[in-house]
Amino acid sequence: MKKNKTALVIFLSILISFIPISPISRVVFSQENPLLEEDYTEITEDFEISGEMEIPEGKTVVVKKGVTITMDNAQVDIEGELIIKGTLNEPVKIKKKDGSYGYFFEVLSGGNFELINADVTGGGTSAFSAEKKSILNTAYAYGPMQGAVDVNGGKFSAQNVNFHDNLIAVSITGSNSTVKVNRSKFLNNFQYEVIRTKTSGTADFRYNWWGNPAGPIKNCEIYNACWPVSGTINSSSWLAEPNFHDPVIIVPGILGSQEINGKWTIDPVWHTYDNLYKEFADNGYVPEKDLFTFGYDWEKSNIESAELLKIKIQEIKTANNWSKVDIVAHSMGGLLTREYIESENYADDIDQLITLGTPQNGAPEAYLKWDGDAWFWGGSDLYAKRILDQKVKESAGQYADRFDYIHQKPVSSLEQLLPIYSYLQDVENNYEYEIYPSGYPKNEFLENLNQAENIAKLRKVEFDKIIGKAGSDTGTIAGFKIINADMGKFWDHGYPLGFEIPLIGDRGMIKGSEDGTVPYESAKSENIPADEYMEINSVHRNLPTDAQKDVLEFLTGIRPENENRDSMIKDILITSVFSPIDIQIVSPNGQWAGKNINNLDEGEQIDGAYYSGYETENEFLTVPNPENGEYKVITQGTGDGEYRIEIAKISEDDSGVASEIIGEIIGTAENGIQEEKTVEVLENEIITEEKDVIAPTITISSPQNKIYLSDEIVPIDFSITDDSSEVDEEKTKIFLDEKIFSKNEIDMAYLTKGEHNFKISAMDKAGNFKEEIIAFSIQPTIDSIIENVEHYYQNKLITKKATKNYLDAKLRVIKIQKMLYDAINLSPWPVKFKNQLLKNLARNINREANDLIEKIQKEKAVAKNILEPARSVLISNLGEMKM
Description:
Layout: H1 2-17, E1 27-28, E2 40-43, E3 47-55, E4 60-63, E5 68-78, E6 81-85, E7 92-96, E8 104-108, E9 112-121, E10 128-132, E11 138-142, E12 149-152, E13 155-164, E14 168-172, E15 177-182, E16 185-187, E17 192-196, E18 201-204, E19 229-230, E20 248-251, E21 257-260, E22 263-266, H2 274-282, E23 291-293, H3 302-320, E24 325-330, H4 332-341, E25 350-356, H5 365-372, H6 379-393, H7 402-408, H8 412-415, E26 424-426, E27 432-433, H9 444-449, H10 452-455, E28 462-468, E29 476-483, E30 495-496, E31 509-512, H11 520-524, E32 532-536, H12 543-546, H13 548-556, E33 571-578, E34 581-586, E35 592-594, E36 610-611, E37 620-624, E38 629-637, E39 641-652, E40 658-669, E41 674-681, E42 686-688, E43 697-702, E44 707-709, E45 713-715, E46 717-721, E47 733-736, E48 739-740, E49 745-747, E50 754-763, E51 769-779, H14 782-794, H15 801-825, H16 831-858, H17 860-863, H18 870-880
Parallel strand pairs: 1-3, 2-4, 3-5, 4-6, 5-7, 5-8, 6-9, 7-9, 8-12, 9-13, 12-14, 13-15, 13-16, 14-17, 15-18, 17-19, 20-23, 20-24, 24-25, 25-28, 26-29, 28-32, 44-51
Antiparallel strand pairs: 10-11, 21-22, 26-27, 29-30, 29-31, 33-37, 33-39, 34-35, 34-38, 36-37, 38-41, 39-40, 41-42, 43-46, 45-49, 47-48, 47-50, 50-51
Helix pairs in contact: 3-4, 14-15, 14-18, 15-16, 16-18
């Protein structure tokens, strides 16, 4: 067999030597091919290369997924950079043109060639050159055989490339060449798979399939030279079978990890990633062998967490003797992973990154929490409020409240989710958007991550985006309508107009229709190109479940038939412990969670319950989808003193909006002493032995029970406190004259004279209701009416300056007459004479007032230019000016 193959090669070589080759003029990409006039060029359509071409130094060419390159006796000299990057499901195909004799890419000194997810066939040549001497004759010269890729002093890397049916797949013919070909396949390459004629440099060919479970062994049936490899290369750790998948790591988003006795674990509370994890396990991945999770302290900077991710990846590579991993990252986890890839510490060890709903340019919802400490949206928000509140209360006064904890600790990850685009509308500037970054809380982390030179580093991985687009009911926050307001340490960059007035208006929020958390434009992020992109019908928290089949197909090329949807948590019961005690709870069906104080059966723990552990600083436990009924609460003193247990049931509706009910247990602990109490969890109430029956306290500081002038603007200032249960902010309402009021100040210019009622109603989480009413009056004066006319004009309720000037002139006439009236009334003149003068003046004042009222009511030239409510208030207040 070997003899026949040798004869065939000799015959082909002789045949080729006598076939005249048409003269080929050199094509220089930067000059003769207009496609390559720029320093950077992307190619997304099929194309053909005929003859010799060059990628000069300083030029970069990127060939994208799904492209087919047809080579017609082609030679591509690479002195710049060529990146051929397909995807697992849409590889780039490189093939020779029918009737041609071969081709090769030559990587010269200083050149760089990256080949990712590609199929290479028909390449390699017995390398000859052709020079046209005249019209009738051509000169030929032989050189050594070259592979489909020939590395002659440059850099070449290949990942997941199928080299097959070439004369030679890869040749290394130049000194100081750097070659790294991993996780690829070599099959039926006729002369050699790899030939290396120079020993200086590196030749890393590990983790490849060589057509045999025993690796690159002698096989004269396949190879003309009998051996697949000529020269010294590192081909160790070869694959025992052709198909493989990389180990995968699931990286959660913010709030997606919790600590259990000092170890960070991926979401044991809401179980957001359980279904995705099970789907991997059902499709050939083995937990802790090639299926991993990365729990981390989500309060810390993503820069710190990225360093820990690097360590995690290295541990997995070492344990598996493998060079790369795949990562599926949800929400903020995508930014964390990008931080690693784009950092100076990146070890080129991620093959595919799939982000699920990642806010690539930030999420405005973070502004609520960072600038205003407003946690109200979904179940995860209410849960976060509880655990942060517990940390504040256990800090021994180090932090005054959640806001101080977030900014002083700090919770850096929250700041790193702030958008880096314009999302604040200035109400007082005609709702124009403030231009980022002026007037915004800055996000330097994301600004750096999204610099063009850093985004370019994502080319080293297959970067896939899956985003949720669930429709109009999700209420995704896209921005805010803000005003400048003195709110103390809160809302330093602008207060969302009417935000603290729930259930009415839009609370100063601009809504979109995306996944409920991340705006569509930020998740899609066209400024950050992806290799694969997909939109699915899903809300943000459900993306890991709803995208599970798509994720597996992206990573393996095979779409699973079945999926897991068991772990979909809507409600949780969270029990927070304030020392000095440890805790165990027993559910109505006898299962338990917490510290096993009563030595109950370990096999009877509540399925999916989370317990922080009794050795942690902030002890708490959660129960998913809790059943209603009576729970036993068992405590064990760890010291002497007062203790408190807060129990809350957090429920989330189908639109993602959450509510909670709470209860509280208070007691006195003795070291080592056990105590048992009961709590009844109902659908809409938690009943404890110390049921809260005291309503909240409402204190209204402004407005006050007094008379205000009609041109005053009075700020609204009040506080609501509750010593036992928390105030239910969603149930707080403000009324003015029995109508819902949504502003943070009362402009008396828009209210008629007389008495008005200002009312606040509030309810605590135990259901106790309270309302407080303040009565105040408005009294117009001629000066306040004059001031209001200017005020109405500035607010465009008086639409013509001429009308404003007319009203002002008429009012000043009335003012002069009233001043004269008051002066005469105080004079020592004779009574009869004085009364006659006063009578005449009063008649004049009334005539002027009535005349002005009539013009405002009936004369078109005036009436049409005064809009409501200014017209009605002016008429009412002018009536008060009559004597």
